[in-house]
Amino acid sequence: MATTRHAGRWTLEDRFASAWQYLPVEVPQGACGLRAELEYERTGVILDLGCIGAAGFRGWSGGARRSFVICADAATPGYLPGELEPGTWQVVIGLHRIPLGGTEYRLVVDVSTTPGELEPEVPPEQMPPLTDRPPRRILPAAAGRSWLAGELHTHTVHSDGKLTVSELARFGTSRGLDFLAVTDHNTISHHAELPGTSASHGIVLLPGQEVTAEAGHANAFGDIGWIDFREPADGWLEACERAGGLLSVNHPIGGHVSWIAPMKRRPPLVEVWHWSWLDTRWTTPLAWWLAWDASAIPVGGCDWHVEGNDAPPGSPTTWVEAEADDPDAVLEGMRAGRTAITASRDGPALLRIGDEFVACDADGLILTGPDGPRARVTGPLARSPASDGCHRLVDTAGATQALTGRARRI
After folding, report:
1. Chain-centre distance of CA 359, in angstroms?
2. Given this model, what pLDDT does residue 406 score?
3. Rounded to whole angstroms, how far apart are CA atoms 130 and 135?
4. Which sign, positive or negative, has the C-alpha torsion 39, 61, 15, 259?
5. Whether 205 contacts 180, CB under 8 Å
6. According to the model, what pLDDT value does residue 410 have?
7. DSSP characters for 91-141?
8. 269: alpha, beta or left? (left if phi > 0; alpha if psi -120 to 50)
9. Secondary structure class of 214 (helix, strand, coil)
């Protein structure tokens, strides 16, 4: 076992120079396990933790962990298992919050060439699928398509969430959802689990990554590989486009994690309805959306991490009109702008189908558009001519119950 030690003090001047610091570790030929442990005083300090191997990205856990293990066939959640290529590796330290006096740190990295000497914790057993899941909600759709109820913003133990991928899948099915995007922070280590878990639990699991930086967060959707969060936001968009994915600006009005990153071009999606829109009589998120890019496709997200802190998956619910129940079809439905958002899975819905608006289970609500109220909805299913721009269903107090974006022309 070879051990590398780094110790010192990070200061505000270090943070001003770069948010990312790199501590080298030499990995010899034949290495089969690596363990890193970071120690520092956490009062008023947040240090993020990650790893770049000699051949590229090997994982990220941000401030959620103090240590990680990488082996050929297993790794700490957030990190990628696989052969340990020889050469210089880098333990990445993100200087997220540094106090005026700086902070002492100590990093110890062990590298083993003995099989079994270093192993990550044994993962928990897979959750059994739900046997009494709610029936699917059927909404009117264009020929050959169906509306799928989903959640586009969730986290697991692969970043700072509390549920495993299988626990999240079971939770999503218990809430009657047809798809979930798993969007752990700055990593794609969860992607390998998604196909098998999806098949076991009967729910579409869409690969995602929440690209997370101080100036803003964005979801990169699709099986597109790792997006380098250290790059400017324009680089995130370019990488997504090259790989065939979609980028969505997350919680643009979200307290200290609001979007302030400059961009030369606009991503195709915006998380207009985040769980933090606590009073839907306020139109602040809509104002940001329309000022940022009125043509951006609206989506919603609960930003699930842990029970008691966040709204549960499907609050709000993002609906996607898709041609099949699989990740590619959900992605293509989003790309085409066939989305709608409801406060809950079973709440009133406003759908744009061809040249019509279809209001479902919305009796007594008011259809409103860019120019204000248009009509009162009567009955469980009401159709009216569609027009361009953001349209909503609101109650008599002006609270949004459902919304849909402008017509998408592709």
Report:
1. 29
2. 77
3. 12
4. negative
5. yes
6. 43
7. EEEEEEE--TT-EEEEEEEEEE-STTSS-PPPPPPPPPPPSSPPPPPP---
8. beta
9. coil
pLDDT > 70: percent of the chain: 99
Q: What is the three-state SS of 34-101?
A: EEEEEEECCCCCEEEEEEEECCEEEEEEECCCCEEEEECCCECCCECCCCCCCEEEEEEEEEEECCCC
State both tokens at 343: 């406060």
Calpha distance 229→213 (Å, rounded)? 6
Helix extents (H) in 194-317? 194-201, 233-243, 284-293
Is residue 258 within 8 Å of residue 286, measured between CB atoms?
no
The span from the CA of 272 to the CA of 285, in Å, is 6
- At 70, the pLDDT band (50, 70, 90 cuts) reads very high
In a domain, 349, yes or no: no
Q: Please, which residues have CB within 8 angstroms of residue 117's CB and are 6 or more apart in sequence?
A: 1, 32, 33
Do residues 314 and 345 make contact, with C-beta atoms less than 8 angstroms apart?
yes
Q: Is 373 inside a domain boundary?
A: no
| Residue found under tokens 């990093």 | 107
**In terms of Cα–Cα distance, which of 236, 241, 373, 251 is closest to 301?**
251
How many CB atoms are located within 10 Å of the residue 63 CB?
A: 17
Q: Provide the CATH number for the domain around residue 57.
A: 2.60.120.380
Instruction: Note whether 190 and 252 are same-domain residues.
Output: yes
- CATH classification of the domain holding 236: 3.20.20.140
Phi/psi of residue 379, nearest 5 degrees: 90, 170
Would residue 382 count as lying in a domain?
Answer: no
State yes or no: pLDDT of 276 exceeds 90: yes
Count the neighbouring beta carbons within 10 Å of the beta carbon of residue 284: 11
**Polymer length of the chain:** 410
